[in-house]
Write a structure and sequence with these properties.
Blueprint lengths: L1 H27 L7 H28 L7 H27 L10 H8 L13 H9 L13 H18 L4 H23 L1 H16 L2 H44 L1 H10 L6 H10 L4 H14 L2 H18 L6 H16 L7 H14 L6 H10 L1 H24 L8
Helix pairs in contact: 1-8, 2-6, 2-7, 2-8, 2-15, 3-12, 3-13, 3-14, 3-17, 9-13, 9-17, 10-11, 10-17, 11-12, 11-17, 12-17, 13-14, 13-17, 14-15, 15-16
Length: 415
């Protein structure tokens, strides 16, 4: 029990704060908006660290990449498996949320004005798709990279900078050491900010509920229940399917016989990174060769998260319902798919920072006000446990399929 409370302490505290905030909002109604400055303070603290967090996280991750055994074939196979399974996850997320209104869109205009950021500029200038893409991925001055208005351009620069460090080799070691130290510091800054999170989110939620009543609370509850049902069904159906593709009946038996330690560790810790050692051992017991397991699982922890990608779709669809955004055309659907996939790629093993990056990306690319960030943070909090379970076990199932492609159909017999 003590271990459970220790692992879930921060989540429990946040949930309690949100519940208390909801009660305050119900009781005091519009008077609860007096607490909104305390929520704004939390939002501002998060927004301040977004730029250094993206740069340091992405750059350091790429700069430290090592060359694993059988590099070419294993890595190409991993990329293919991750892309295919991520597409499956985002499609399942869409199919389960499109027919359902997670929150009543009736208050959309009022909520939009409440969350509107007066510092954000809007433009009616019509530009082509190509011009818009160039503006999205690049800027004409280095100083503009330091603005949260250009997160995609910052991400592209971070990737290029990380690759350049990797190419430089030993001469760049002092830079890598500096970046690692700075990355550790910014992660601790996030931890310090999160000490204030219960107060900030509680006050934010109190003001939100006080302004808009019970509908938004019902939306969160509906989101959690639907996500829980989807995650359990996805776990049982799709991971069985993936195991069968990897090893037919033997693969399914091996998967279900050995998957429970990593599943329980994920649920108990709510951390994909903390689950890496036990997940590698589970994969090996399923017959996955050591070099494949030891490459797929760590890479999957950073770049392949079934639970988080389904969660990204739920976050997007929550905002779609909240703001009454149109989803009438195929273009709207493909945009959700693209944003959810890209946001998933940015959720690294950093427990809180990666999620904040992905949530800011969702808001930026879909044109919602940055003041909606705490709304997505609350959703991330309530779905954390089942999402982590899918993230971890998804890597286990993927490692089996990678082994099937790299070592052939008899990979289980050859272990």
């Amino acid at each position: 029990m003590k271990k459970f409370l220790s692992n879930y302490k921060s989540t429990i505290i946040l949930l309690v704060a949100i519940i208390v905030g909801a009660i305050v909002g119900f009781v005091f109604q519009e008077k609860a908006t007096v607490l909104s400055p305390f929520g704004d303070l939390f939002l501002n603290l998060l927004l301040v660290v977004i730029v250094p967090l993206i740069f340091l996280t992405i750059t350091t991750s790429i700069a430290k990449m090592k060359t694993p055994k059988r590099l070419g074939k294993i890595l190409i196979t991993i990329v293919v498996i991750f892309v295919v399974t991520s597409l499956m996850s985002v499609l399942i997320g869409l199919l389960t949320t499109l027919p359902i209104k997670l929150v009543d869109p009736g208050d959309g205009e009022v909520i939009r004005s409440y969350l509107d950021d007066p510092t954000e500029e809007s433009t009616s200038e019509e530009i082509t798709i190509l011009e818009r893409t160039i503006k999205l991925i690049s800027v004409n001055d280095f100083s503009k990279l330091l603005s949260r208005d250009n997160l995609i351009a910052l991400l592209v620069f971070s990737v290029i900078f990380g690759i350049a460090i990797n190419m430089t080799g030993e001469k760049a070691k002092p830079v890598v050491d500096f970046l690692e130290g700075a990355n550790a510091i910014i992660n601790n800054v996030i931890k310090i900010i999160m000490y204030y999170a219960p107060v900030g989110l509680g006050c934010y939620f109190a003001a939100l509920v006080g302004s808009f009543g019970a509908s938004i609370v019902v939306g969160y509850l509906k989101t959690f229940v639907i996500y829980l049902i989807v995650s359990v069904a996805f776990f049982a159906i799709f991971y069985t399917l993936y195991a069968w593709i990897a090893g037919k009946k033997k693969g399914v038996i091996a998967f279900w016989k050995n998957v429970w330690p990593s599943t329980l560790t994920a649920l108990g810790t709510c951390s994909s990174a903390a689950s890496i050692p036990v997940n590698i051992e589970c994969s090996k017991k399923m017959g996955v060769p050591a070099d494949i397991a030891e490459t797929t699982i760590p890479l999957g922890t950073s770049f392949h998260k079934d639970g988080s990608i389904i969660g990204s779709v739920f976050k997007i669809m929550f905002l779609v319902c909240l703001f009454g955004t149109s989803m009438a055309t195929a273009g709207d659907v493909f945009r959700v798919i693209g944003v959810a996939l890209l946001a998933n790629l940015l959720i690294t093993a950093v427990p809180i920072g990666g999620g904040t990056i992905s949530e800011m990306l969702i808001i930026t690319m879909l044109g919602y006000p940055v003041a909606a960030l705490p709304i997505l943070t609350i959703i991330a909090t309530i779905i954390d446990a089942p999402a982590t379970m899918l993230n971890v076990v998804g890597d286990t199932a993927s490692s089996m399929m990678v082994a099937r492609i790299v070592d052939g159909k008899n990979w289980m017999e050859n272990k």
